[in-house]
Write a structure and sequence with these properties.
The protein has 423 residues and is mainly alpha-helical. It contains 16 helices and three strands. A hairpin with a 6-residue loop joins strand 2 and strand 3. The chain is globular.
């Protein structure tokens, strides 16, 4: 009799849970999709304004000061950025709603004045803070609150990039390496799909590229791809190290956060004009650099571009400017892959695609997201090569991460439990 009652309870509970999450996911998908859409257009307008008025670059130090003071006034001077979103999911730590407008405005200011940053870190914070607050208003329990935070992350990320499958899995995979939050699968997928649909309804195009020179499935191209995977692992390690060292150096040289932001902005301005010595009039390393990524995928990239973008990004974000690291990661991976692929006998365009996805895998420790990202960005061509390159990069990139609050649950080298923070 007891077994029968338990089975009946489960049969009635599961449909209720499904309906509940369908409703919550629709709400989160629409709300975060709208916010993500507005954020996309704001970044687009800021980028266009900077292109039309290059003198805005001179305002970068002032923008840095404004960002620091704005966060100080709002009581978030010690804001941990995307790291706090990971803590919110893993430990159910509350996120403040004011995080959303702050990161929105600060990221737009960074892009408007020529700081080197991306958008995805802001998207995760936008979606996470909004959905977390909605979960509080809905009086969700601790476990459901974590799930709804992941829904917001998925919806906002998907709205910006138009990659719903990668966005959904990323939210479940990035928090704890080696453990997937499968209970959030339906909510995250549905939220991401709705977020993407809302963004596309307003005219936000999905991010997509066409690759050239995809080789046939043969042993030699696979070997060449694995060689590139080793190179991308080294870049992943370098990228993470630079992003962690830069803020420490800034803090040592400029203990005052306001002075730190002003000095960082001045350094980026100075470096921009140093670049003019051999490439007059170029602003390739300011902003996100989407145009350079597109050129790399078409087979054109300067061999030093990845190093310069890494330097610009470390100087910008280390000084306290806001944004994200993933688009700069795409930039570095695409330009290095474009330059290195011909050296091992692969097409430059194909190498750029491998670099984008593999370096992303190395710095986030998210291989499943990377495979889905390759499929959505490049239409599913050459997937065995993307899988091999990403796997090699993942294994050899060590335990570093863009996000210091990411937990490494299982070893990359052996099937053993290690449970430590990323380096």
């Amino acid at each position: 009799m007891e077994d029968w009652k338990q089975k009946l309870s489960r049969l009635t509970r599961d449909p209720r849970t499904f309906v509940k999450w369908v409703f919550f996911s629709c709400v989160i998908g629409v709300v975060c999709g709208l916010v993500g859409t507005a954020f996309h257009f704001a970044i687009q307008l800021a980028t266009q304004a900077r292109g039309a008025h290059p003198w805005l670059l001179w305002l970068l130090p002032a923008a840095g000061v404004a960002i620091v003071l704005l966060y100080r006034v709002c009581g978030l001077e010690r804001d941990q950025g995307t790291n706090f979103v990971l803590i919110a999911v893993r430990e159910n730590a509350p996120m403040r709603l004011r995080t959303a407008p702050l990161i929105f405005l600060a990221t737009v200011l960074t892009h408007l004045t020529g700081g080197s940053s991306g958008r995805e870190g802001a998207a995760l914070q936008l979606g996470g803070s909004i959905s977390s607050k909605l979960g509080t208003w809905m009086r969700l329990d601790e476990k459901d609150h974590r799930t709804i935070t992941m829904c917001g992350m998925s919806a906002a990320f998907a709205a910006l990039f138009g990659t719903p499958l990668a966005a959904a899995v990323f939210s479940m995979e990035v928090v704890s390496v080696g453990v997937m939050y499968y209970a959030a699968l339906v909510p995250c997928v549905l939220s991401a799909l709705i977020g993407t649909g809302v963004a596309q309804w307003f005219g936000v195009p999905p991010t997509a590229f066409t690759l050239a020179g995809v080789p046939e499935f043969m042993p030699l191209p696979l070997l060449r791809t694995a060689v590139l995977g080793v190179l991308f692992a080294l870049l992943s390690i370098l990228f993470c190290r630079m992003m962690h060292v830069a803020p420490k150096l800034y803090a040592r040289l400029f203990p005052n956060p306001v002075l730190r932001a002003a000095a960082g902005g001045a350094l980026v301005v100075a470096l921009t004009y140093v670049i003019w010595l051999w490439a007059p009039g170029t602003y390739d390393y300011n902003g996100a650099g989407a145009d350079v990524i597109a050129r790399a995928v078409s087979g054109q990239a300067r061999p030093e571009a990845f190093a310069l973008k890494l330097l610009f990004t470390a100087l910008t974000l280390g000084a306290g400017f806001k944004g994200g690291e993933i688009v700069p990661v795409f930039f570095c991976g695409a330009t290095l892959g474009c330059a290195a692929a011909p050296l091992v006998g692969l097409d430059a365009s194909f190498g750029a695609g491998l670099g984008m996805v593999s370096v992303f895998c190395g710095v986030t420790n998210c291989p499943m997201t990377s495979f889905l990202l390759a499929m959505e960005l490049f239409g599913g061509v050459g997937m065995p090569f993307f899988a091999l390159c990403g796997a090699v990069t993942y294994m050899l990139s060590g335990y570093g991460s863009l996000y210091t609050e990411q937990k490494i649950i299982y070893s990359k080298l052996r099937p053993e439990f290690i449970d430590k923070k990323a380096e």
